[in-house]
Structure formats: structure tokens, C-alpha cells
Amino acid sequence: MVSIQSDGNLGQVLFASSQYKVIGVDPSEYPSIPDVESAATMTIDSHELREMIRKTGFAASSEMVRYALTGQLLHVIPEKGGGMDVRMVTSDGKRLAYIRRKHGAKDGTAPQKEIKVLLPPKALNLIDRMFTEENEKVALYIDETQVKVITKRGMVFCRLIEGNFPDYETVIPKECELKVSLNPQHFVAAVRKAALMTNEKTRAVKLAFSSGRLVVSTRSQDVGEATSEMAVDYKGEEIQIVFNPDYLIDFARATDVESVDLHLKDKSSAGVFKAGKDYIYVVMPLAVAI
């Protein structure tokens, strides 16, 4: 049997013939958790929240210079009849990940007013790890500065990120004339093969689309060159565009569908990947020659 006792800032652990005294901090000095029970409240399925976290988190910025972009935007719009429109968005200025899920009145509890807050990715990753394989209802209490998330396994409390997130709806291109349908697993394999011949200075791959075919290639004076081909569903004019391969791989790994659509306008405009109508990934091309 283990006995644990405390006296002020001194903790004592007794076990069989052993005794440990650990110097700590007086528990009265531990910061109290603010009450957010009266804040905006919503519930959502853990499986959906986990999906939204994982399908957007990779596109958040790691640069503290643009602090607002280090967060994951949670945008919740209440709808008539008790439903809600839940969106999560991230961007690092070079790409943007957007996912949207619609909920009926029976799918969760909608907040009384619109919510638009920036959540810290570290806190969301912790929440993700707390979820089990079993689906459950997760409660979120949100006010102007903080959020509390309650699951079956515990509670996570964190402060919101301050700052203004860009108007994501204006960033997503509305008109792209060219559309390519491709298998994300085959696509990521082709990109990885070509990316082997890149380095930090030449981290770029060229996508060359022609009727029914995609050629992924790269060329570097310091490393060499590589070419990989795959079949795609495309019947438009030939087009070439250059991207950072890591950005393409991140999205392809996050998808769980057999086909995604890539919408293009020209080699200088953003590419728009869509896995269904409610999961969108926008990535800017690179202005380099390969």
C-alpha cells in the first residue's frame, strides 16, 4: 500500500520500508480555474471534432510573428430550428485548410449566438488524445478569453489566442476553369518520389497535367532530377504549376476518400483541392522554374 500525505509545500510518500519527502509549492498558490459555465455553450460529437482538428491543424502557422495564424479558427453559426453550421479553418499565409460540418437539432446543442474564436493547436491536440474510439458528446464553454472542453476522460481549460484571423471566405477562389480528379494515395506517392530529389533550397515539384495524365517532376543542380507519372481524370488544356511538395503531402495524408478534385485557373493562381464540398485546401504556387 502506498500512503501519500502533504503538509504545506512538503509532500510525503510512504511505501513499504521506503519514505520520500518531496518539496513542492503550496497548493494555495496554484491558480484557480476561472468559471466559464455561464459562457456560450455547445456540444458536438467527439468523432467530428477530432476530424476537424486533424484535417486543419497541419496548415496552422508556426511563426509567432503572425500570432493569430498560429491558432485554429472555430466558427459556429446557429441556425433556425436548433441546428448549427460548424467550421474550422487554419492558414499560414501560404495555404489554407477549411472544413465544415452541418448539424441538425438532434446532432448537438447549438450556441445561442455566433461563435468565432481562435483555439491553440496544443490544446486541441491534447483534446484529440483524450478521445477514445467510442463516439461521445463533447461540451464546449466559450467566452471572450477562454474555453473549457469537457469529455468523458476529463476537462481541458485554455486561453484563446488573441488577434484577428483573415476573412477566410474571400481567400477561397470561387472560379477555377480547370478541374482534375485524382486518387490522393497515388498522388502523394508520386509527389514523394519526385521530392526525394529536392533539398531545402529547391523544395519544389512541378505538376504537368495533360489529357488523362499527370507528370510530377523536379530538377536541382545540387541534387539531380526525378519524374513520376500517374493517371488522372482530366480532359482540359495542358497546364503546369509548381508547389511545395510538403504542402501537397500534408493534405493528401489528411484525406480519407478515394478521389479528390484539384481546381486550377493558371500557373500563377492558387490551387484548390476539394474532398467533397465541405473540405477544402487552398495552396499558393511557387514562382520558380523547374
Quick summary of this structure?
The protein is an alpha+beta fold and 290 residues long. It has five helices and 19 strands.
How do the SSEs run, as a string of H and E? Answer: EEEEHEEEEHEEEHEHEEEEHEEE
The number of helical segments is 5
What would the principal axes of the Cα set say about the shape? globular
Low-confidence segments, given as residue ranges, are none
Q: Provide the CATH topology of the largest domain.
A: DNA Polymerase III, Chain A, domain 2
Question: Strand sequence of the main sheet, in spatial order?
Answer: 8-5-6-7-19-18-17-12
Instruction: Please bin the fraction of helical residues.
Output: 10-25%
Can you say what the CATH homologous superfamily of the largest domain is?
A: DNA Polymerase III, subunit A, domain 2
3D architecture notes:
- The protein has 290 residues and is of the alpha+beta class.
- The chain folds into 2 domains: 40-169, Roll (DNA Polymerase III, Chain A, domain 2), CATH 3.10.150.10; 172-283, Roll (DNA Polymerase III, Chain A, domain 2), CATH 3.10.150.
- Helices cover 16% and strands 40% of the residues.
- The protein contains 5 helices and 19 strands.
- It has helices at 46-54, 121-130, 168-171, 184-195, 245-254, and strands at 2-7, 10-15, 18-23, 40-45, 72-78, 84-91, 95-103, 115-119, 137-142, 146-151, 154-159, 178-182, 205-210, 213-220, 224-231, 239-243, 260-264, 271-274, 279-283.
- It has an 8-stranded antiparallel beta sheet. It has a 4-stranded antiparallel beta sheet with strand order 4-9-10-11. Strands 15-14-13-16 form a 4-stranded antiparallel beta sheet.
- A hairpin with a 3-residue loop joins β14 and β15 (224-231).
- α1 packs across α2 and α4 packs antiparallel against α5.
- The longest helix has 12 residues, at 184-195.
- It is globular, with a radius of gyration of 24 Å.
- The protein starts with a strand and ends in a 7-residue tail after the last strand.
